[in-house]
Amino acid sequence: MSAPLIVGLEGLELTPRERDFLADVRPIGVIVFARNVQSGEQLSALVGAALDAAGASLAFVDQEGGRVQRLRPPLAPRYPAARAIGALYERDAEAGRRAAWLAGRLIGEDLAQYRLNAPCLPVADVPVPGANDVIGDRAYSERPDAVATLAASAAEGVLASGALPVVKHIPGHGRAGADSHFALPDVDASLAELEADFAPFRALVHLPMAMTAHVRYRAIDAAGAGTLSAAVIKAIREDIGFGGLLMSDDISMGALGGKVADNARRALEAGCDCVLHCNGKFKEMAAIAEALPPMGEAGAARLAAALAARRTPGADDIAALRAEFAGHLGVGA
Fold this sequence. Notes:
alpha/beta
Protein backbone atom coordinates (compact mmCIF):
# COMPACT_ATOMS: atom_id res chain seq x y z
CA MET A 1 0.00 0.00 0.00
CA SER A 2 1.25 3.47 -0.86
CA ALA A 3 2.38 5.93 1.76
CA PRO A 4 0.58 9.32 1.80
CA LEU A 5 3.82 11.06 0.94
CA ILE A 6 5.53 12.92 -1.91
CA VAL A 7 9.28 13.23 -1.52
CA GLY A 8 12.17 15.23 -2.90
CA LEU A 9 15.43 13.63 -3.99
CA GLU A 10 18.93 14.45 -2.85
CA GLY A 11 20.85 15.08 -6.06
CA LEU A 12 21.38 14.26 -9.71
CA GLU A 13 21.23 10.48 -9.40
CA LEU A 14 19.12 8.17 -7.29
CA THR A 15 21.25 6.87 -4.42
CA PRO A 16 21.04 3.22 -3.33
CA ARG A 17 19.43 4.18 -0.03
CA GLU A 18 16.88 6.35 -1.83
CA ARG A 19 16.06 3.47 -4.15
CA ASP A 20 15.56 1.13 -1.20
CA PHE A 21 13.49 3.76 0.63
CA LEU A 22 11.20 4.34 -2.35
CA ALA A 23 10.71 0.62 -2.89
CA ASP A 24 9.94 0.03 0.78
CA VAL A 25 7.79 3.10 1.57
CA ARG A 26 6.11 3.45 -1.85
CA PRO A 27 5.28 7.18 -1.76
CA ILE A 28 2.62 8.33 -4.21
CA GLY A 29 5.10 10.51 -6.06
CA VAL A 30 8.34 12.49 -6.15
CA ILE A 31 9.10 16.18 -6.65
CA VAL A 32 12.04 17.65 -8.54
CA PHE A 33 14.01 20.83 -7.78
CA ALA A 34 16.88 22.66 -9.46
CA ARG A 35 19.38 20.61 -7.45
CA ASN A 36 18.15 17.55 -9.36
CA VAL A 37 18.63 19.05 -12.82
CA GLN A 38 21.80 18.96 -14.90
CA SER A 39 20.72 17.79 -18.35
CA GLY A 40 17.66 16.42 -20.03
CA GLU A 41 19.04 12.88 -20.26
CA GLN A 42 20.12 12.93 -16.62
CA LEU A 43 16.76 14.31 -15.42
CA SER A 44 14.76 11.74 -17.39
CA ALA A 45 16.90 8.95 -15.94
CA LEU A 46 16.51 10.26 -12.38
CA VAL A 47 12.74 10.67 -12.58
CA GLY A 48 12.29 7.32 -14.30
CA ALA A 49 14.43 5.51 -11.74
CA ALA A 50 12.58 7.12 -8.83
CA LEU A 51 9.12 6.36 -10.20
CA ASP A 52 10.08 2.81 -11.07
CA ALA A 53 11.49 2.20 -7.60
CA ALA A 54 8.41 3.65 -5.89
CA GLY A 55 5.92 1.99 -8.22
CA ALA A 56 4.43 5.47 -8.58
CA SER A 57 3.33 7.55 -11.55
CA LEU A 58 3.31 11.16 -10.32
CA ALA A 59 6.35 13.40 -10.71
CA PHE A 60 5.84 16.97 -9.51
CA VAL A 61 7.77 20.17 -10.17
CA ASP A 62 7.24 23.86 -9.44
CA GLN A 63 7.11 25.27 -12.95
CA GLU A 64 4.94 28.39 -12.80
CA GLY A 65 7.10 30.71 -14.87
CA GLY A 66 8.70 33.91 -13.61
CA ARG A 67 10.60 33.46 -10.35
CA VAL A 68 9.37 29.92 -9.82
CA GLN A 69 10.64 27.79 -12.67
CA ARG A 70 12.90 24.83 -11.85
CA LEU A 71 13.55 23.85 -15.47
CA ARG A 72 15.12 26.62 -17.54
CA PRO A 73 16.81 26.90 -20.94
CA PRO A 74 17.94 24.76 -22.61
CA LEU A 75 15.67 22.21 -20.93
CA ALA A 76 12.59 24.44 -21.12
CA PRO A 77 11.82 27.96 -22.33
CA ARG A 78 11.51 30.81 -19.86
CA TYR A 79 7.93 31.81 -19.18
CA PRO A 80 6.70 35.10 -17.77
CA ALA A 81 5.25 35.39 -14.29
CA ALA A 82 1.50 34.95 -14.01
CA ARG A 83 1.06 38.70 -13.46
CA ALA A 84 2.17 39.36 -17.06
CA ILE A 85 -0.70 37.17 -18.24
CA GLY A 86 -3.00 39.04 -15.89
CA ALA A 87 -1.89 42.36 -17.35
CA LEU A 88 -2.64 41.07 -20.86
CA TYR A 89 -6.07 39.97 -19.64
CA GLU A 90 -6.81 43.51 -18.45
CA ARG A 91 -6.01 44.81 -21.93
CA ASP A 92 -7.68 42.01 -23.88
CA ALA A 93 -9.68 39.43 -21.93
CA GLU A 94 -9.78 36.82 -24.69
CA ALA A 95 -6.04 37.12 -25.35
CA GLY A 96 -5.34 36.80 -21.63
CA ARG A 97 -7.44 33.65 -21.28
CA ARG A 98 -5.77 32.17 -24.34
CA ALA A 99 -2.28 33.02 -23.06
CA ALA A 100 -3.04 31.36 -19.71
CA TRP A 101 -4.20 28.21 -21.53
CA LEU A 102 -1.16 28.25 -23.78
CA ALA A 103 1.19 28.60 -20.82
CA GLY A 104 -0.34 25.56 -19.14
CA ARG A 105 -0.37 23.54 -22.35
CA LEU A 106 3.25 24.35 -23.22
CA ILE A 107 4.62 23.86 -19.71
CA GLY A 108 2.98 20.44 -19.62
CA GLU A 109 4.52 19.69 -23.01
CA ASP A 110 7.97 20.80 -21.82
CA LEU A 111 7.83 18.50 -18.81
CA ALA A 112 6.54 15.38 -20.51
CA GLN A 113 9.88 14.56 -22.15
CA TYR A 114 11.44 14.25 -18.69
CA ARG A 115 8.61 12.07 -17.26
CA LEU A 116 7.42 15.03 -15.16
CA ASN A 117 3.64 15.12 -15.22
CA ALA A 118 2.35 17.24 -12.33
CA PRO A 119 3.35 20.92 -12.55
CA CYS A 120 2.47 22.79 -9.36
CA LEU A 121 0.33 25.47 -10.98
CA PRO A 122 -1.85 27.49 -11.20
CA VAL A 123 -1.37 29.90 -8.31
CA ALA A 124 -4.89 30.97 -7.33
CA ASP A 125 -3.87 33.29 -4.49
CA VAL A 126 -5.15 36.87 -4.43
CA PRO A 127 -2.48 39.25 -3.09
CA VAL A 128 -3.50 42.32 -1.15
CA PRO A 129 -1.55 45.58 -0.77
CA GLY A 130 1.07 45.38 1.95
CA ALA A 131 1.39 41.60 1.87
CA ASN A 132 4.76 39.88 1.69
CA ASP A 133 5.92 39.49 -1.90
CA VAL A 134 6.37 35.71 -1.62
CA ILE A 135 3.28 35.58 -3.85
CA GLY A 136 3.51 38.97 -5.58
CA ASP A 137 3.74 38.57 -9.35
CA ARG A 138 3.16 34.83 -9.07
CA ALA A 139 -0.53 35.78 -8.83
CA TYR A 140 -2.46 36.65 -11.97
CA SER A 141 -4.20 39.64 -10.47
CA GLU A 142 -5.40 41.34 -7.31
CA ARG A 143 -8.98 40.78 -8.53
CA PRO A 144 -10.50 37.44 -7.46
CA ASP A 145 -12.59 37.12 -10.62
CA ALA A 146 -9.57 37.58 -12.88
CA VAL A 147 -7.55 35.09 -10.83
CA ALA A 148 -10.37 32.54 -11.06
CA THR A 149 -10.69 32.93 -14.83
CA LEU A 150 -6.99 32.76 -15.62
CA ALA A 151 -6.19 29.99 -13.16
CA ALA A 152 -8.97 27.88 -14.67
CA SER A 153 -7.62 28.49 -18.18
CA ALA A 154 -4.06 27.60 -17.15
CA ALA A 155 -5.25 24.42 -15.43
CA GLU A 156 -7.22 23.42 -18.53
CA GLY A 157 -4.06 23.91 -20.59
CA VAL A 158 -2.10 21.63 -18.27
CA LEU A 159 -4.82 18.98 -18.51
CA ALA A 160 -4.80 19.26 -22.30
CA SER A 161 -1.08 18.41 -22.24
CA GLY A 162 -1.77 15.13 -20.45
CA ALA A 163 -0.39 16.40 -17.13
CA LEU A 164 -2.20 17.14 -13.86
CA PRO A 165 -2.28 20.65 -12.36
CA VAL A 166 -1.83 21.34 -8.66
CA VAL A 167 -3.71 24.44 -7.44
CA LYS A 168 -1.82 26.61 -4.92
CA HIS A 169 -2.21 27.61 -2.06
CA ILE A 170 -5.67 26.75 -0.78
CA PRO A 171 -7.48 28.49 0.98
CA GLY A 172 -5.30 31.50 0.07
CA HIS A 173 -1.80 32.85 0.70
CA GLY A 174 -2.31 36.36 -0.67
CA ARG A 175 -2.75 38.15 2.67
CA ALA A 176 0.35 36.64 4.23
CA GLY A 177 2.60 39.23 5.83
CA ALA A 178 5.54 36.83 6.02
CA ASP A 179 7.24 34.31 3.76
CA SER A 180 6.06 30.89 4.97
CA HIS A 181 9.36 29.35 3.91
CA PHE A 182 10.80 31.05 7.00
CA ALA A 183 8.02 32.12 9.38
CA LEU A 184 4.32 31.52 10.02
CA PRO A 185 2.19 34.23 8.38
CA ASP A 186 -0.54 35.50 10.68
CA VAL A 187 -3.74 36.65 8.97
CA ASP A 188 -6.32 38.40 11.12
CA ALA A 189 -8.85 39.13 8.36
CA SER A 190 -12.49 38.43 9.11
CA LEU A 191 -14.38 35.57 7.51
CA ALA A 192 -16.16 38.11 5.33
CA GLU A 193 -12.81 39.43 4.11
CA LEU A 194 -11.51 35.92 3.52
CA GLU A 195 -14.36 35.28 1.10
CA ALA A 196 -12.37 37.17 -1.55
CA ASP A 197 -9.45 34.78 -0.99
CA PHE A 198 -11.70 31.73 -1.21
CA ALA A 199 -13.49 32.81 -4.40
CA PRO A 200 -10.90 31.64 -6.97
CA PHE A 201 -10.58 28.27 -5.26
CA ARG A 202 -14.35 27.82 -5.37
CA ALA A 203 -14.11 28.20 -9.14
CA LEU A 204 -11.47 25.44 -9.26
CA VAL A 205 -13.05 22.75 -7.07
CA HIS A 206 -13.36 20.45 -10.09
CA LEU A 207 -9.58 20.16 -10.42
CA PRO A 208 -7.80 16.99 -9.30
CA MET A 209 -5.22 18.27 -6.81
CA ALA A 210 -4.50 21.24 -4.56
CA MET A 211 -1.78 22.30 -2.12
CA THR A 212 -2.44 23.87 1.27
CA ALA A 213 -1.12 27.16 2.63
CA HIS A 214 1.07 27.34 5.75
CA VAL A 215 -0.86 30.37 6.99
CA ARG A 216 -2.66 31.01 10.29
CA TYR A 217 -6.21 32.27 9.66
CA ARG A 218 -7.28 33.64 13.03
CA ALA A 219 -10.93 33.87 11.98
CA ILE A 220 -10.95 30.08 11.43
CA ASP A 221 -8.36 28.70 13.85
CA ALA A 222 -6.00 30.87 15.88
CA ALA A 223 -3.96 27.90 17.07
CA GLY A 224 -1.58 27.53 14.13
CA ALA A 225 -0.96 26.93 10.42
CA GLY A 226 -3.86 25.99 8.17
CA THR A 227 -2.07 22.85 6.98
CA LEU A 228 -2.22 21.47 10.52
CA SER A 229 -5.72 22.71 11.34
CA ALA A 230 -8.78 20.48 11.15
CA ALA A 231 -10.94 23.61 11.10
CA VAL A 232 -9.12 25.03 8.07
CA ILE A 233 -9.21 21.71 6.22
CA LYS A 234 -12.93 21.49 6.99
CA ALA A 235 -13.36 24.97 5.47
CA ILE A 236 -11.49 23.81 2.36
CA ARG A 237 -13.68 20.74 2.04
CA GLU A 238 -17.06 22.11 3.09
CA ASP A 239 -17.05 25.89 2.66
CA ILE A 240 -14.91 26.10 -0.48
CA GLY A 241 -16.04 22.65 -1.63
CA PHE A 242 -12.76 21.18 -2.86
CA GLY A 243 -13.06 17.42 -3.21
CA GLY A 244 -9.79 16.51 -4.90
CA LEU A 245 -6.51 15.23 -3.53
CA LEU A 246 -5.25 17.67 -0.91
CA MET A 247 -1.51 17.76 -0.27
CA SER A 248 0.37 19.82 2.26
CA ASP A 249 2.77 22.49 1.17
CA ASP A 250 6.36 21.48 1.95
CA ILE A 251 6.22 20.09 5.47
CA SER A 252 9.83 21.13 6.11
CA MET A 253 9.16 24.87 5.69
CA GLY A 254 10.02 27.23 8.52
CA ALA A 255 6.42 28.33 9.06
CA LEU A 256 5.59 25.14 10.93
CA GLY A 257 8.46 24.88 13.41
CA GLY A 258 8.83 21.75 15.54
CA LYS A 259 9.74 18.32 14.22
CA VAL A 260 8.91 17.56 10.62
CA ALA A 261 7.69 14.04 11.41
CA ASP A 262 5.26 15.39 14.02
CA ASN A 263 4.01 18.01 11.58
CA ALA A 264 3.54 15.40 8.86
CA ARG A 265 1.41 13.28 11.17
CA ARG A 266 -0.59 16.32 12.28
CA ALA A 267 -1.26 17.33 8.68
CA LEU A 268 -2.86 13.96 8.00
CA GLU A 269 -4.80 14.10 11.25
CA ALA A 270 -6.12 17.54 10.25
CA GLY A 271 -7.45 16.12 6.98
CA CYS A 272 -4.72 16.42 4.33
CA ASP A 273 -4.60 13.37 2.09
CA CYS A 274 -0.82 13.37 1.73
CA VAL A 275 2.30 15.19 2.84
CA LEU A 276 4.85 16.93 0.63
CA HIS A 277 8.50 16.85 1.77
CA CYS A 278 10.82 18.72 -0.56
CA ASN A 279 14.35 19.17 0.76
CA GLY A 280 15.65 15.68 -0.02
CA LYS A 281 17.16 15.20 3.44
CA PHE A 282 17.08 11.47 3.87
CA LYS A 283 16.88 11.35 7.68
CA GLU A 284 13.83 13.62 7.61
CA MET A 285 12.17 11.53 4.90
CA ALA A 286 12.77 8.36 6.88
CA ALA A 287 11.39 9.90 10.08
CA ILE A 288 8.29 11.14 8.27
CA ALA A 289 7.67 7.76 6.66
CA GLU A 290 7.97 6.10 10.06
CA ALA A 291 5.43 8.52 11.55
CA LEU A 292 2.78 8.20 8.85
CA PRO A 293 0.08 5.54 8.59
CA PRO A 294 -0.72 3.99 5.20
CA MET A 295 -2.84 6.11 2.91
CA GLY A 296 -6.44 6.19 4.09
CA GLU A 297 -9.40 4.98 2.07
CA ALA A 298 -10.67 8.48 1.30
CA GLY A 299 -7.22 9.67 0.24
CA ALA A 300 -6.70 6.62 -1.92
CA ALA A 301 -10.02 7.26 -3.64
CA ARG A 302 -9.09 10.89 -4.31
CA LEU A 303 -5.70 9.82 -5.64
CA ALA A 304 -7.38 7.33 -7.97
CA ALA A 305 -9.77 10.04 -9.16
CA ALA A 306 -6.85 12.40 -9.83
CA LEU A 307 -5.00 9.77 -11.83
CA ALA A 308 -8.18 9.03 -13.78
CA ALA A 309 -8.38 12.72 -14.76
CA ARG A 310 -5.29 12.39 -16.94
CA ARG A 311 -5.97 12.88 -20.64
CA THR A 312 -4.29 11.84 -23.83
CA PRO A 313 -2.72 15.00 -25.32
CA GLY A 314 -4.27 16.27 -28.50
CA ALA A 315 -2.34 16.41 -31.76
CA ASP A 316 -1.52 20.10 -31.38
CA ASP A 317 1.05 21.88 -33.51
CA ILE A 318 3.39 22.73 -30.62
CA ALA A 319 5.62 25.01 -32.70
CA ALA A 320 2.55 27.00 -33.72
CA LEU A 321 1.35 27.20 -30.09
CA ARG A 322 4.78 28.47 -28.99
CA ALA A 323 4.74 31.10 -31.69
CA GLU A 324 1.23 32.15 -30.68
CA PHE A 325 2.25 32.46 -27.03
CA ALA A 326 5.32 34.49 -27.95
CA GLY A 327 3.10 36.72 -30.05
CA HIS A 328 0.99 37.49 -26.99
CA LEU A 329 3.80 37.98 -24.48
CA GLY A 330 7.08 38.05 -26.38
CA VAL A 331 8.58 35.06 -24.53
CA GLY A 332 8.18 31.31 -24.22
CA ALA A 333 8.85 30.44 -27.85
